[in-house]
Amino acid sequence: MPGPTTDKSPFGVMLTAMVTPFLSDGSVDLDGTRRLAAYLVDDLRHDGLVINGTTGESATKTDEEDLAVLGAVIEEVGDRATVIAGVGTNDTRHSVLAAKAAANAGAHGIMAVTPYYNRPPQEGLVRHFHAIADATDLPMLTYDIPKRTGTGIELETMIRIGEHPRIVANKDAKGDLDFAQWGMASTGLAWYSGDDILNLPLLALGAAGMISVVGHLVGDRLKDMAEALWAGRSQEAADINASLLPVYTGCFRTQGVILTKAALQMQGLPAGPVRLPLVDATDAQRDLLRAELALGGVRGFTA
Description:
Layout: E1 14-17, H1 30-42, E2 48-51, H2 63-77, E3 82-86, H3 92-105, E4 109-113, H4 122-134, E5 140-144, H5 146-149, H6 155-161, E6 167-172, H7 177-187, E7 190-193, H8 199-205, E8 209-212, H9 215-230, H10 234-251, H11 256-266, H12 283-295
Parallel strand pairs: 1-2, 1-8, 2-3, 3-4, 4-5, 5-6, 6-7, 7-8
């Protein structure tokens, strides 16, 4: 697998769940996809990218679009960064087919979110994730985000899920540091922060890295923060984190992809509009975001 990976951090340390750039007519911008992927890896020092996740607007893209976007990213940066394909849906059979398609396209790993809307019991979660892991030879992350899916993965369930040899990591967006500590201690899974405001606390508790949204803007500084913490420079890590608080807050005043795309547009980077039922940032939202990103020292923004 390309990129600086270790047993502790099997997909690398700094990853971003990448937006899907669209053209003005709402179609997928594959050239913009390639340019954005290269920027994140080469300029912002990403170890990897997660494609077709929540921030990639997977809920409003077709399977064919997902594969086209995944293929473009693999072609552009797959020789120097880990490319993980989001394949999770609320239909196990659909997710299995998506996992197989991602493997055939050359993805280095797959990620599956907890099934949404149908709110399965815990036994259903175990069978769902194991079925997806059985579908390919790729390493896999689970993605636990109950505020979106309506169902959280319980600790005993996570332990059972993690017994599958190809399920090697969990993306934690649960916002529960109690659960995170027990999960890291009990499962043997690599733990990735999926909630930017908790990046530093989770890293300090033993997380392997971050799958970020604000990494689109400050991935290099997040990587510096992790490296400082692990080198014993805890005050430096805390200072970096404090400097990023306006960025964390600013990018999530409304749905994350809306404001991330607005920020990328202001930087002149590929992004385009969002797809309904999301709506693009208003002028007032953009003005507030611009001020917060300037306060957070994001390149291209001045107070």
